[in-house]
Design a protein that fits this description.
It is a single chain. The chain has a single domain, classed as Alpha-Beta Plaits (2-Layer Sandwich). It has three helices and four strands; from the N terminus they run E-H-E-E-H-H-E. The chain has a four-stranded antiparallel β-sheet. Helix 1 runs antiparallel to helix 3. The protein starts with a strand and ends with a strand.
Length: 98
């Protein structure tokens, strides 16, 4: 079974308020076995557009990645990201098993 991933690109406008989102999302990520592969860090955008922060999170399956996003725990966390705290583009994608 292929793993599932979240690929996120985020602009954070209020770092202090964003910390509340990070604290809140921990419950969902623990419940669904999420593992951060990339969480910020230096990068170079060589084509196209991106945001200031890039994140890749691994899950055991595509189903787990989807379930985490749609969970009550994560919906609670998203509320802390709204109101001008941050903007994000997020893709849930199936891993390659080649």
């Amino acid at each position: 079974m292929a793993k599932g991933y979240w690929i996120g690109h985020v602009d954070v406008y209020d770092e202090d308020a964003y910390l509340k989102y990070i604290a809140a999302n921990a419950a969902a990520f623990a419940k669904y076995g999420a593992r951060f592969l990339i969480r910020g860090g230096e990068f170079e955008c060589v084509e196209g557009k991106t945001r200031a922060r890039n994140v890749v999170i691994e899950f055991a399956s595509l189903e787990a990645a989807r379930a985490c996003y749609h969970s009550p725990e994560y919906k609670n966390a998203i509320a802390f990201r709204g109101g001008g705290v941050a903007e994000a583009d997020l893709v849930i994608i199936e891993g390659y098993e080649g």
